[in-house]
Amino acid sequence: MSSSLSRGSRSAIASAVVGLALAMCGGAAAAHERSIVERPINSELDAPLLYQLLIGELELRNGETGTAYQVLLDAARRTGDEGLYKRVVQIAVQARAGDQALSALRAWTTAHPDSSDAWQSTVQLLAVLNRPAEAVEPMRNLLSVGTSAERLAALAMLPQWFQRSPEPQRVAAAMAPVLQAQQGELKAAALVTEARLSLSAGLFERAEAIARQLAELYPEADDAMILALDLLPHAPGAEALITQRLAAQPGRNALRQAYARALVRMQRAADAAREFRELTQRDPDEPAHWLALGALDTELRHVVEAEAALREVLKRLDTPPKDEAKPEAAEEAKRSRSELRRQALLLLSQLAEQRDDLKGAERWLSQVEGAQIDVRYRRASLLARQHKLAEARALLQAPVSASDDEARTHLLAEAQLLREQRDWRGALGVLKQIDARIPDDPDILYEQAMLEERLGEFDQMEERLRRVIAVKADHHHAYNALGYSLAERNLRLPEAKALIEQALKLSPGEPFIVDSLGWVEYRLGNLAEATRLLTQAHAARPDAEIAAHLGEVLWVSGKQDDARRVWREALGRDARNEALRETLDRLKVGL
Fold it and tell me: Where is the secretion signal located (predicted)?
């Protein structure tokens, strides 16, 4: 129950060990010493204290929390036992009595001002109560007691303690003076913590400034780069920190890989492909780098480059791996290589299908083991291309015993198949089956809205997109789709711009949203701003639809040669793109 009991137990064990050693030595002196060492040590748990503890616990069990709290707090004050103080705090916290818990913590820290456990518990409770100003002094005390490891751990945990605060800016402002005062071995960790709090508070300029400071003070450490990666969508200058480090230390493959993955998350496929291409040159034996490059080039419709990269995956996988020291590591490596092969074969099949080489697509697909939904989808797509749509749909049917999640996956695949066949009404019907089974799924509602737009049912589309936003307020695709649809139809342009700007706040830098913003600026007549935004979007993701928009703005701005160049390059990547073809036909441009 208390730490004094555990100390008494340890003393008894130690006495027995020493006594045994002395007995082995023999002699009167040894016997005399043994009699001293083996003398019983009285426990601090006397009868009145035992009675008090029993009463406290019985009152707690009987639901008399307040009485139990008072009884045990009195016992803690009498004995100074930290275990008892902790127990009292737990009782108050479980009873949701924040002020009583703080009172117990004040008694604890008064009795044990050097207890890192007590100060940490105080900061954590004040974080839960969202009282950052009151946590300043306890945090300062926590960083002045305990071991170096405990102080560093406290700095690392501080952002997590306050992560649910509804006022993160208050947290950042309150803790900044404490963190900025740290020097020596705590300085770097304190800077990282301040940057994390600033990032959570949306103070991106401050977080970026700290990242730069860390990069200058600790050029060999990874802290600045980790912060810069997290800041990428929010602070334009953060990317320069990463590229400068990679330019100075081009062999930092782990950093380059993390940077490339961050670019993928931001949907900057072209930039991500550039970094993975560099990785394949610096670490050519790693098949995962080749697969990532092949997937990105497939997405960018760089068919020749994609196929070459994917063949490199298979070439590397055909080389036997080095023996692993542990059997479990070897088994994990085997599973990983099997999945890499499966993904490469699926992508090669997809590329062959894009070239209308259906036999080649089937040949690649026949090498894929298993019958997962992605494999079945590729087979269904090939059947549909051969006018066997009923057979293709049957291949994607979920088993009768399927769970809701399994049924959702199969129905989404079937809807995508029908969408590729331009059967908008049929795809919408399939999605409504999911809606009936899993109502108010925001992603399903969104997909239905996109099909309603295809069908010209704009009122239903808008109603459904607003439903998505009501269900999931941070669904940036819904804001963007609604704003873009209004801009495309030249309706309510100020509202369209506000919706798109909200989408961009939720997903900073995403090329398709930047494209939407550029398009609404074009509709508003702001040609210079439209050109800037669309150029930015196209550079990050040279998609055919973005190219159609950029080309049109360039064309209207009198830059016909630049427009033709953009359109010609897009046609080379995606000659069937509807938006691109419609733009060229409407503007009566021949290439």
Answer: 1-30
